[in-house]
Amino acid sequence: MPIDLFIFCLLLSFALTLLLCKRIIPILMQKKLGQKILEIGPRWHKNKEGTPTMGGVCFLIPILFVGSLSFFLIRRSTLTSEIVGGMLTLAFAFLNALIGVFDDLTKFKRKRNQGLTPRQKLVLQTAVSAGYLAMLSCFCELSTTLHVPFSGAELDLGRLFYPFALVLLVGIVNCANLTDGLDGLATTVAAILSGFFALLATVFASETVLLLSGAVLGGTLAFLIFNYHPARVFMGDTGSLFLGAVLAGLAILLGDVGIIVISGALYILEGVSVMLQVAFFKLTRGRRLFLMAPLHHHFERRGWGEVKVVSVFSILSFFFCLVALFAYM
């Protein structure tokens, strides 16, 4: 495996993201593209209002550039199925980022923390995910087989794979978006997951996944310098939708989308906490299962400091990646 190219992609993505953060953050501040804080949110988050958002462009541009460059570095005489899959994955992530850009810009236009409606975002994300799966099916060797964790057994879903993968892709993208609620949380979790996928790529001998993971890892680590508490910039939906998409795509490229279910369990916990909160609220006519959802806000309400929540959730994410490693080895 080209470990030297992995290090090159990581360092180049890190350097470019660092450079763009220093250039773009002042522009975001000048344009007054600051975050609006929900009234129903934790009252101590009010001091974050006005912090520049849409900072996801600082890492998505380097990741797209370095990821595309990596395909030329490993390209042989012809395009391989794996490289085409990598290109489609970057396109999938980019289109999700565009949804995020439109959502963020709509928030600024309306001057509130509400951009696209959940239904509008869901329709767009479903269309993009369905197109991604269709293109992979046409131009790549897309496996419809899932490995059963800890057993070594395989389960071929056949045509049922596509609705399963569609739901999982859309779900992970949205759950990654929900995780972006505390300084550095979404960035740290994405860095941990990209490091995990880089490790798996060496096991499954996937050059494309290895180099793309290096690009994501470098970009998120550099962005974390500006995004850790107290954050000087937020990634916005622009960044969180991009990261959720590219990480879910890496699982697809590894040949088993189910890997993200265990390794990305923190994302799923955040998303499920919101669904349970809404369902419980409706069924009990106003009672709440959690003090606040997503789950990270529940622990804030219980008195945990923001740094403690991010630290514990990051450790949990690392633990889920270890479990996934043992489950698929």
Global mean pLDDT: 89
Order of helices and strands: HHHHEEHHHHHHHH
Strand order of the largest sheet: 1-2
Please identify the structural class as seen in this structure: mainly alpha
Helix content: 55-70%
Q: What is the 3D form?
A: globular
Instruction: Count every beta strand, where a strand is a DSSP E run of 2 or more residues.
Output: 2
Could you tell me how far the N terminus lies from the C terminus, measured between alpha carbons in angstroms? 18 Å
Number of domain modules: 1
Spans of at least 5 consecutive residues with low confidence: none
The biggest sheet, with number of strands, parallel, antiparallel or mixed sense and barrel status, is: 2 strands, antiparallel
Tally of alpha and pi helices: 12
Any overview of this molecule?
There is one protein chain. The protein has 329 residues and is an all-alpha fold. The protein has one domain. The protein is 70% helix and 2% strand. The protein contains 12 helices and 2 strands. It has helices at residues 3-30, 57-74, 81-110, 118-139, 161-179, 185-204, 207-227, 236-253, 259-263, 265-283, 295-301, 306-328, and strands at 145-147, 154-156. It has a two-stranded antiparallel sheet. A hairpin with a 6-residue loop joins strand 1 and strand 2 (154-156). Helix 2 (57-74) packs antiparallel against helix 3, helix 3 runs antiparallel to helix 8 and helix 5 (161-179) packs across helix 10. The radius of gyration is 19 Å and the shape is globular.
